[in-house]
Amino acid sequence: MKRTLIMKKLHWLFMAICLAVMPALQSCDDNDGYSLGDFTPPLWATVRVTGNAFYLNCDVWGTLWPVNTDIGWYDAVDGQRVITVFNPLWDNYAGYDHAVKLLRLQNVLTKEVETLTPETEEEFGNDPVFIYKGDITISGGYMNIFFMQNLPSSTDNKHRISLVRPQEDDALYGEDGYVHLELRYNDYDDLTGRRSPGAVSYNLNSLDIPSETKGIKLKLNSEENGEVEVTFDLKTAGSNEKLTTNVDLSNMQLK
């Protein structure tokens, strides 16, 4: 009987110890890292070169240090915009927000905002483009655009897609509190009717947008709706939610 009472006391003591340490164990588990099965949807990021290596500045996750040993093929260019999918491994790694294993790394045409003048009007063109408002996002200091390109007949005759600003600052920074830009497209009268996804990302940092700016108003020539103006609120514009599926850009013919 005495032995039974001792065993019961030991049993409850063991249970009490388990209950006491469970929160601590759970806390440790939450911070040990990620599962190898965890991976992100496709996300926008910017390549940053440091010495002989590079890291990514992801619009959503912050700075990412790739631990892959199989990416020697990638020719990193500082400022290049990419679409990436990765397996997060650890947080706060060697001064970076995360250490990751890159599962996909696709370059996207990366361009600066150009100035529209009477001399450049013809070269920029104003041909219609098949695009919807939901395919344009602003994040990471860039305007990111997806559209369906009507392909040219030859890879030697790439279409030109440009984000342009007015020549005068008074027209760029409007009295309405918005920055005024235009998306221009030149198909050089070479269309085949064959469609393929296209993408481009424009660096907005050269615009020196004031902090009090409400947003951006973008004029474009839409195949579906003609000449339209689309408004983006910069306070809520950092959205990558549209980019949730893989997009094959291998047939894109743009400059």
TrEMBL record:
Keyword entries, A-Z: Integrin, Signal
Keyword set includes ATP-binding: no
Domain NigD-like C-terminal positions: 113-233
Domain NigD-like N-terminal OB: 45-108
Keyword Signal attached: yes
Highest taxon in the source lineage: Bacteria
Gene3D superfamilies found in the cross-reference section: NigD-like N-terminal OB domain, NigD-like, C-terminal beta sandwich domain
Single Gene Ontology BP annotation: integrin-mediated signaling pathway
Signal peptide: 1-27
Protein's UniProt name: Integrin beta-7
Species this protein is from: Bacteroides uniformis
